[in-house]
Specification:
Blueprint lengths: L1 H5 L1 H21 L5 H6 L4 H13 L4 H5 L4 H15 L13 H13 L10 H13 L18 H14 L7 H22 L23 H17 L5 H13 L29 H13 L6 H11 L10 H15 L1 H16 L13 H4 L3 H12 L12
Helix pairs in contact: 2-4, 6-18, 7-8, 7-9, 7-18, 9-10, 9-11, 10-11, 11-12, 11-13, 13-14, 13-15, 15-16, 15-18
Length: about 400
């Protein structure tokens, strides 16, 4: 009962998100429930309506009401592929890093509205996958997810982010309590790792491959920062200073020098892999763009510059680390809104749909990621295409 009381506000806020989405759809199509509309999203009637609706379907109104478009059909095939890769123990992977690949698969499912409480085969597969990640042996005594499956801090950040996004959304009180426990331990490790003494001031606030690393890079750091931001949204214990320090690290990774007021040159530019490298890349700029906005830096000159720089770039299938670059690009440009968002959504769909395999999977088009496996490539593609649904709270405006 102590856990339920502690997370009442968190679960209510998550319920509100889904309730608002469903209520809006109901209003548009003319079957809104008076109890939901009049009593508010946190009333017992509203929660009951949401519970019933979510157990039936959390798919977007467009998919339920109209014929599915090419993107919707591609996503359906991709989810079927991921479910088909599930092992008897619940893990979803094909080439190793079982905890991390399972976590990415769960996020992909959640991004299209599937939940662990859903009685459908997909919902059951998701619940089984979540149960696998929550096993005691997935996390070591330090709270580290990256050791067991060899994924290091990359995997730790991804798995912790997934659990923060599923916080309060488990299939039972017991599962919710496990999610809460694993979340806080995972976050605590991210916080302690950030405090490790760095060998140079430019790395302060960031993360690298291991919890005790003395340097940092943008690629690893963004996953940790996203997990922190999501956890803070959940009401977990995350000091504001940790996110502030991480944002300052991001700013030092901007590819052009900043003046004394922290402003960049007027020329559009992006983010580099490490501070002061001065060579922006598509993937790192997209990652920096999303992370800055998730942390509330929507009006930062660096964000505006990065978005402009990205808008002029061609998306290449063989881009180095292109699978998660496209993912960051899709989500980051969605946050910008307007023409930038609509153009980016079209570009992402154009390149991903033409490269989907016949079995619904994706194989990353670059040597840096193709050897990670198709579960990875498919999960990242779904997370890129599902921007149209806006279900994962961390990516909502």
């Amino acid at each position: 009962m102590k856990f339920q009381q502690a997370t009442h506000t968190i679960i209510s806020s998550r319920t509100t998100v889904y309730c608002m989405a469903i209520a809006c759809a109901c209003f548009v199509f003319g079957f809104a429930s008076p109890s939901v509309a009049q009593d508010g999203p946190n009333s017992s009637a509203a929660k009951k309506a949401v519970d019933t609706a979510t157990k039936t379907s959390l798919l977007p109104a467009k998919i339920n009401a109209f014929e599915k478009d090419e993107t919707d059909r591609a996503i359906d095939k991709a989810i079927d592929y991921l479910v088909g890769q599930q092992k008897s123990n619940g893990a979803i992977f094909d080439r190793g890093h079982d905890t991390t690949m399972t976590s990415l698969s769960i996020m992909a499912m959640a991004s299209v509205g599937i939940q662990p409480v859903d009685p459908s085969p997909k919902g059951k597969a998701m619940n089984k996958a979540l149960t696998f990640v929550l096993q005691a042996d997935r996390m070591d005594e330090q709270g580290y997810f990256g050791r067991k499956d060899g994924s290091r801090m990359y995997g730790h950040g991804i798995t912790t982010l997934m659990l923060t996004e599923m916080h309060g959304m488990g299939s039972s009180d017991e599962q919710d309590e496990l999610i809460h426990d694993r979340c806080q331990k995972g976050i605590d490790l991210i916080l302690s790792s950030q405090k490790e003494k760095k060998r140079d001031i430019q790395y302060r606030g960031g993360w690298r491959y291991e919890p005790n690393s003395s340097d940092a890079d943008l690629s690893v750091s963004v996953w940790q920062l996203m997990a922190l931001r999501s956890a803070k949204n959940d009401g977990l214990q995350v000091p504001a200073s940790a996110i502030r320090d991480a944002v300052e690290y991001l700013k030092r990774s901007y590819a052009l020098p900043l003046d004394r007021n922290g402003l960049p040159d007027a020329k559009p530019s992006g983010f580099s892999y490490e501070p002061q490298q001065r060579n922006p890349t598509f993937t790192m700029t997209a990652a920096g763009l999303l992370a800055m906005q998730v942390c509330g830096e929507y009006n930062s000159p660096l964000v505006k510059s990065a978005a402009e720089w990205l808008s002029k770039k061609e998306i290449k299938w063989n881009e180095r680390f292109g699978s998660y670059g496209i993912y960051y690009y899709a989500q980051g440009m969605y946050q910008r809104g307007g023409e930038l968002a609509s153009n980016a959504e079209k570009k992402v769909a154009d390149i991903l749909l033409k490269h989907q395999n016949g079995n619904g999977s994706w194989t990353s088009g670059n040597g840096s990621e193709s050897n990670i496996g198709n579960v990875y490539g498919t999960s990242m593609a779904v997370l890129s295409l599902s921007v149209k649904y806006h279900y994962l709270p961390i990516y909502q405006k």
